[in-house]
């Protein structure tokens, strides 16, 4: 950022900070404080997606999930725009099962397991779509709301409850102005509304009910038994409102087409669904084709069926998902979006060709408990698919051979489910589990299904995973203990010779519990990209791969009247990133002992605030001894949200204004606002408007003439909060910016260290080859390319510092900077990471090494796009010469560089304790060889003529794994607020 821009920013922010009213995140809440809890966050849903709703213009859609989030997505490309979180407390409070969007697109209504732990009834929440703020609660529903539908006037809402009928709500005051409770106790899931407000409601009692809703009245006009076997499950009115499609499940699979005014049967669809029915239905905009989503067990599985000629045929089958197609939303221009029980989302055009897809991001053990194979004497576990395992102790992925066994280490075994002395039967997806012919006593009879079984190595006890948690029984069926968390337990096994239980929840979180008492020791989440992982304890202390610390965060309740806040784990890196504590608890299986073991003299204690005392009152959970959750509540950064124009906006003018709301604790006032555009530092003109418990700021920026994303960050003495994002579609003229685009390359490679024991084979050549490859981009995507190459003995701390100063002087907002570092990198005893120039001295690391913090300070302030490639995890003989407290793990430093507030895209050659490999056969290091191949065109899989950083990342990941046979895993975390951008043009 130029000096004048920084000065304007400082003045503007000073005005705002002076006027901002400090506000506690829970200000105004009368109820007792609700402890923060850790929640997985994947940038997509973790659990089942039950429903979706499209805005009237078809620009965005909202999904409802049992992972306690509503998510707002762009229909054009499937980009996540916004995540809405309800009031929560630990347990099942806050899961969503239904969603609707008002006719004007301004309000989102959602139902599900909401309010029951705060009130005496269930409720519906109304969120402001633009800001995501919770605007209203509608209370008084005796059971959870399974469907929400806005009336055409936008002033009324129809809500179907699970077991207590239907209500029509006047939104102005939340009053019930109409109801029908004549439903019995059979659950009801089915409701559909025509454009004129005519509404069909159906339940498992087999009745179809038709209502009028105009004029703020609920009038039942028809009630009749369904004319098909099974229970009605999904319904959809044709666009002209004359026909009604109703699907059936549970004993029948018919799809009937009814007269929408009388419910008379017009004809039945030749559905060809086998013995299972369709679970979702919709009509195309022209009314000519009926779409039906199948269940995972149907013949021709996991598809959307398209029945042409208004359902009379012919049939087309569109393969979509691996699980139930739970809902289908039809786009105004044709095509549809479908959502699945395994959290997958996919879009198709009017010709039913794929547009985009969001794959499930959680390991899928559902209906496959035997896939959880573990090391009997260790902690390693296999991921579904049988190709790779993860070892939590070594913090590494382990490739599996064709027989499904690790290439290194011991055998992985599935859970034992039958022995000569213990005979457990009917345990798979059953409510009647038996031990030697006797039914086991579960805590929720009639409402609890067993999913998984594992018999202990000593054959004296067994573990049962259910829809409500996990149990340990002795050989006689006596319940020894049980534990529960939100979400089903779908796979279980024994580890560490039976001393530890491994339990997988639906959603992919693995829990490691002591077998003796069921106490949670630590949890793990492994990304499906097979590069990122996270290990964490109940109190929040964690270890993570590069990019792994943002796989979860703290969910902080603000009471029952406000949406919860979410803070990624990275916001608390300084206090809670504790690899040594995680290692210790894996061996001690006890949090207090782990604390004592990790609190000895060493770099972690020096680098971070001291751990609390390892004493806890008798009877308290182990995590109370290291009360990380309690400390979180006292060190929250600010929360910032967009008030207007919302998460999705458009502009034809370069000058763009947005309004944000900022909340911060009373003892930690706002100190700074930061604005980044497409990840780059941006000048902003800020005006504050104090408004009650929070402050509103008006921010004006200059947009580039292209689609972009604005990120706003707020900072207090505790740190920087998660960004608020606005995606802006540029609708103005798009000038050719080639003449304005320049590429600046700073490449450093050190092979010839002064100390011979530090020397490497190809680091200098890697840097030279990379610089040469990028110089060839001149006259293509970039008007000008400049490179500064520093290798071997030229690479001193001074010359490296000069290179970063050169970038600071040269890079402008339309430019791209690529930084390449190849050589050694080390942490000192204080946890600070340094790149080692040629004259580095391990005894004087602070004086001779190049600190990554200094690099970050320069790169984060560059006004253009920034890509850092770090290949600093080499071994050589240097590892045997490290001083006390020194390590070569760059994870913490690279995670810091890749934090959203810095806007830096980071490519790391390897992860954790892995060593970057090089070979004379390749002529480069494995990482650089893959980078060069990718830049030369191999990363252009779809022949688009250019290569973006995400395309390059994908190629590098696959190629390095191939070259090193899985021994080296490059990682590139996608920073929030940095859209994909072109790095090079493919030159023929």
Secondary structure elements and pairings:
Blueprint: H1 3-19, E1 37-40, E2 49-54, E3 60-65, E4 70-74, E5 80-84, E6 95-101, E7 107-113, E8 122-128, E9 134-141, E10 145-150, E11 156-161, E12 166-170, E13 175-180, E14 190-193, E15 199-202, E16 207-212, E17 219-225, E18 231-237, E19 243-249, E20 255-259, E21 265-268, E22 278-283, E23 290-294, E24 303-307, E25 315-319, E26 325-330, E27 336-340, E28 345-348, E29 354-358, E30 374-375, E31 381-382, E32 388-391, E33 396-399, E34 412-413, E35 424-425, E36 434-435, E37 438-439, E38 450-455, E39 461-466, E40 469-474, E41 479-483, E42 489-495, E43 500-505, E44 510-514, E45 520-526, E46 533-536, E47 542-544, E48 552-556, E49 565-568, H2 573-576, H3 579-588, H4 591-598, H5 603-607, H6 628-633, E50 639-644, E51 648-651, E52 655-663, E53 672-677, E54 680-681, E55 685-691, E56 694-702, E57 708-716, E58 719-720, E59 724-730, E60 742-749, H7 763-775, E61 784-791, H8 797-810, E62 816-822, E63 824-827, E64 833-836, H9 845-848, E65 850-851, H10 852-859, E66 865-871, H11 891-897, E67 904-908, E68 918-919, E69 924-925, ...
Parallel strand pairs: 51-59, 60-61, 60-62, 62-66, 66-67
Antiparallel strand pairs: 1-48, 2-3, 3-4, 4-5, 6-7, 7-8, 8-9, 10-11, 11-12, 12-13, 14-15, 15-16, 16-17, 18-19, 19-20, 20-21, 22-23, 23-24, 24-25, 26-27, 27-28, 28-29, 30-34, 31-32, 32-33, 35-36, 36-37, 38-39, 39-40, 40-41, 42-43, 43-44, 44-45, 45-46, 46-47, 48-49, 50-52, 52-56, 53-54, 53-57, ...
